[in-house]
Specification:
Blueprint lengths: L18 H22 L12 H22 L1 E3 L1 H18 L3 E6 L4 E3 H22 L3 H6 L6 E10 L2 E8 L6 H10 L11 H5 L22 H11 L3 E7 L3 E9 L4 E9 L2 E6 L3 E5 L17 E4 L2 E4 L23 E7 L2 E7 L1 E12 L10 E6 L5 E5 L1 H4 L6
Parallel strand pairs: 2-4, 9-17
Antiparallel strand pairs: 1-3, 4-5, 5-7, 6-7, 8-9, 8-15, 10-13, 11-12, 13-14, 15-16, 16-17
């Protein structure tokens, strides 16, 4: 009688590794990447004839990139770990609201950085609470509208490029445009006769303390839920999209980077300051003629880039980073190149002096007094040892005049 050998695949070959160790490995990989870049770009190598050096450098950089990807993948986990906790909360929401809720989950196998997953639960819970409390109608109201008794909430995730897209969508009554607009006008967010577009109006629900609830409950009414979501998404370098249709429901889409460790960027120079911008937000790079960049008013008003018949707002980095971008003697304010970014508010044109490189950078968060720097995720240490500010293009669209 033979005894079968233990199946080594039963546990999937998994090992439990503390997240602190993985974090330490990520830091070491980042330092390795910087050291390699500093070495291969050393000025001591200039003028030397080194046979096969370029080939060896290319292979070394490819290996470093593979090590970075492997280290990053170790910190990824399935987002279903977050979704499972939310699934358990639905039963509690049914009890508290007295409504029937059918939660549909899709894409739970999508992978996301553990540091991102740890911060997603509370914001997603706020969105689900809003959908259950404000969005879904009571059974009687749904029956009159010809809907199923149970309200449907879709919670889905999918990887799109270098981002994870998370969607929370309900089939309820939709956002109350009139009530939101009235509250927004009371707070001075819109003029008394202003009729904003839906995209602009829905954004006010993320304002601190904004709420249309008449009564405060343990589910909503304090005006802090969506503000928490907005703050968390900003910290995670993410963005939010909201769509709503009366009587049909509301769709909240969250776009978050798969990993927070490394960032593919284009390195820019404006005067003496270096900037890095995530490559996935770059629409195009152009070298406009002077007549394509007219100033609308002579007293320092708005500027537009005329690009193939479209007018794109121009944002000058010196309006945000005037203490970091010193005025050079003889600088007329002109720039050699314009980079066009895709943002939630449409395209944005940013003049720069030079496009230097494309690099995978290590993002370092701002700390201390540097946290007051506007429109920046953090800083990136380049292979040359120089520091570049990593631009948050969404906050560039919020204005920035002195």
């Amino acid at each position: 009688m033979s005894v079968a050998a233990p199946d080594a695949a039963q546990d999937g070959g998994l090992m439990r590794v503390p997240s602190e160790r993985i974090g330490k490995l990520m830091d070491l990989v980042a330092e390795l990447s910087l050291s390699v870049a500093e070495t291969v770009r050393s000025p001591d190598l200039e003028g030397l004839e080194l046979s096969h050096f370029e080939t060896a450098v290319h292979r070394l950089m490819m290996i470093v990139r593979e090590v970075q990807d492997a280290a990053t993948s170790m910190r990824l986990l399935q987002i279903d770990e977050v979704f499972k906790r939310l699934r358990r909360m639905i039963r509690e929401l049914e009890r508290q609201t007295g409504k029937k809720i059918d939660l549909v989950i899709e894409g739970g196998e999508t992978q996301i950085d553990k540091l991102v997953a740890d911060r997603l639960y509370d914001p997603l819970l706020h969105v689900l609470r809003n959908a259950a409390d404000h969005g879904l109608e009571p059974v009687e109201e749904r029956q009159k509208a010809g809907k199923a008794d149970a309200g449907r909430i879709l919670l889905s995730a999918a990887q799109v490029g270098s981002e994870v897209r998370i969607i929370v969508e309900d089939d309820g009554r939709g956002l109350d445009r009139d009530r939101i607009l009235r509250k927004a006008r009371e707070r001075g967010l819109f003029g008394p006769d202003e009729e904003p577009e839906p995209g602009a109006l829905w954004k006010v629900i993320f304002e601190p303390g904004f709420s249309t609830a008449e009564n405060v409950s343990n589910l909503s009414g304090r005006g802090v839920g969506m503000d928490v979501l907005n703050t968390t998404m900003t910290a995670l370098r993410g963005r939010i999209g909201v769509e709503s249709f009366a009587g049909q429901g509301t769709r909240v889409a969250l776009h978050i980077p798969v990993s927070l460790a490394f960032l593919d960027c284009i390195i820019l120079r404006r005067r003496s300051q270096l900037f890095a911008v995530p490559i996935d937000v770059v629409s195009e790079i152009t070298r406009p003629r002077p007549e394509e960049m007219p100033r609308i008013s002579a007293d320092g008003g708005a500027e537009l880039l005329r690009l193939r018949g479209d007018s794109i707002p121009i944002c000058r980095l010196e309006n945000f980073f005037d203490s970091f971008v010193p005025q050079d003697e003889g600088d007329t304010g002109t720039a050699q190149v314009v980079v066009v970014f895709n943002t939630q508010n449409g395209r944005l044109a940013v003049p720069v002096d030079e496009i230097l490189d494309r690099q995978q950078v290590v993002l370092k968060p701002l700390s201390g007094r540097m946290t007051k720097v506007r429109a920046s995720y953090g800083c990136a240490i380049l292979g040359t040892g120089e520091v570049a500010m990593v631009l948050d293009c969404e906050r560039l669209t919020a204005g920035g005049g002195r």
